[in-house]
Amino acid sequence: MQRAEASGERAGPEPPARLLEGGGAYFAALETACDRARAELHLQAYIFADDVTGRRIADALARAARRGVAVQVLLDGFGSRAMSPALRSVLVEAGVRLLFFRPEARLPIPRRRRLRRLHHKIAAFDGECAFVGGINVIDDMHTPGHTPPRWDYAVEVGGTAALEVLRLARRTWARAARTYVGALWTQWRQWPVALRAAANAAGSG
Questions:
Q1: pLDDT tens-digit series, residues 108-138
Q2: Cα 160 vs. chain centroid, distance in angstroms?
Q3: Could you give phi then psi for residue 45, rounded to 5 degrees?
Q4: Comparing 36-50, 96-110, 137-151, 162-176, which segment has the lowest mean pLDDT?
Q5: How many C-alpha atoms does 88 have within 13 Å on its Cβ side?
Q6: Which H/E stretch holds residue 195?
Q7: Structure confidence by residue, pLDDT tens digits, 64-97
């Protein structure tokens, strides 16, 4: 299926934005948008929790991918580091392209770089509908260490604003993909050094 086109502005009046209060309204709208997506879908978030809401949205993303929609999910490598293998499998096995922004490296990296995180909470659908706001993919009642519910807002937009969110999502995805490949190359080059150091340490013990 062809990707959505986002190359120009659209004629006619702009559709009104819709305010979504809390996760209840946001996740219902997000799931509906997933089920209506035709060609291209991006979701980017800091946290994607393995709870009732996370599994609900993962299932909606998987349904879209199985229909042939190009689904790209970009999550922060620190905020979503606890995402379970089972939840990842739901996405990947359906054909979702899942990527983590600056995943926690096995080898030591400078601490300053670890502070550069992905805090997007956006979703874009075919250049026609998009969501922006402050809501991660986590249930409102899932508030470890705090009194539930959590409360935040999102806005649903269409028209030119939806095109701009799609462009942003594409750029961020491409940048994260380049960074991820570069990080793998750096780690691959460092593995022989790490292995030699480990062997020397074992031989001297």
A1: 455 555 557 889 999 999 999 999 999 999 9
A2: 22
A3: -155, 160
A4: 96-110
A5: 11
A6: helix 159-204
A7: 999 999 999 999 999 999 999 999 999 999 999 9
Query: Residue 20 in contact with residue 121, Cβ under 8 Å?
Result: no
Residue 134 makes CB contacts below 8 A (sequence gap 6+) with: 121, 152, 153, 154
Strands 70-76 and 40-45: parallel
Higher pLDDT, 205 or 55: 55
Burial 135-153 (b: 16+ CB within 10 A, else e): bbbbbbebeeeeeeebeee
The type of residue at 141 is: M
Per-residue confidence (pLDDT) for residue 1, from 0 to 100: 46
State yes or no: pLDDT of 201 exceeds 70.
no
Query: How large is the C-alpha radius of gyration of the chain?
Result: 19
Tokens 């229909």, residue located: 67
Q: Are 157 and 16 in contact (CB under 8 A)?
A: no
The answer, yes or no, to whether the previous bond of 149 is cis (omega within 30 of 0) is yes
Strand ranges for the chain from DSSP E: 18-21, 40-45, 70-76, 97-101, 122-125, 129-133, 153-158
In 3D, which of 88, 168, 96, 80 has the Cα closest to residue 130? 168
CB 169 within 8 A of CB 71: no
Per the DSSP assignment, residues forming a β-bridge with 155 are 19, 132
For residue 179, give the amino acid letter: T
